[in-house]
Specification:
Aminopeptidase; globular; binds coenzyme A; 189 residues
């Protein structure tokens, strides 16, 4: 498949415990189940969803991105429960420079079991193998210990803090910048 067309049919990716798959309109309830949780949205750029309609709009935006062949989230389905427990994927892709950024979120009952590290490793591998990336970036609120641990365990390096990098929830926020280069990448070759 041509690199340009990699997102025309977002390929499914399997890990030990997860399936990274295309989202479906029927995922709305599972998305709302985690996106309405203030703990999940504590350090995200988005506020907790206040109704399933907000989750429906989110899923619609993802489905539109598939149609328009843009970078888009996978749904993270837990194999053992055949249930969508989170989302994640590439949010931006600069093809000229071979750089893309990953974002992710998962339902609280599934935290601290290494699941997002497993998913993000698969996304990084996808980026190097299928998108010809040279650099994969993950940025997060410096207070988001769980998220920067994911980056660290995926062999990303801490590069610094972008001061007041985003405006969200009524104020500016610093973001930690973590990244892995193709030359740092040791697994999955
Ligand atoms: C951040 C997040 C994705 C981590 O997912 P996860 O599956 O728990 O991650 P992992 O288990 O692979 O690794 C995270 C590590 O941080 C720890 N951790 C998880 N949640 C934590 C929390 N709330 N506070 C502190 N540490 C936490 C885990 O114990 C684990 O520790 P270890 O490195 O010693 O094994 C998940 O907490 C989440 O979805 N949070 C809400 C959305 C979010 O913040 N997304 C990121 C935006 S940049």
């Amino acid at each position: 498949m041509q690199i340009e067309n990699v997102f025309s049919q977002l390929p499914q990716v399997a890990t030990d415990r997860l399936i990274l798959r295309r989202m479906r309109a029927s995922d709305v309830d599972d998305v709302y189940a985690y996106a309405c949780d203030p703990d999940v949205a504590r350090y995200t750029s988005w506020a907790p969803h206040t109704s399933p309609d907000e989750s429906r709009q989110f899923v619609r935006r993802v489905l539109d991105a598939y149609l328009e062949k843009r970078v888009a989230n996978w749904g993270l389905e837990l194999k053992s429960e055949r249930k969508l427990i989170g989302t994640g994927g590439f949010g931006s892709w600069d093809k000229e420079h071979g750089v893309a950024e990953i974002g992710y979120a998962m339902a609280k009952p599934y935290w601290a079991q290494g699941l997002m590290t497993e998913a993000v490793k698969a996304m990084i591998e996808f980026g190097f193998k299928r998108m010809a990336l040279n650099r994969v970036v993950i940025r997060m609120d410096p207070r988001n210990t769980g998220s920067w641990r994911v980056a660290e365990k995926c062999d990303c390096r801490f590069e610094g803090i972008s001061r007041q990098a985003i405006y969200a929830k009524g104020t500016f926020h610093d973001l930690m910048v973590w990244a892995i280069l193709r030359e740092d990448w040791s697994w999955g070759r």
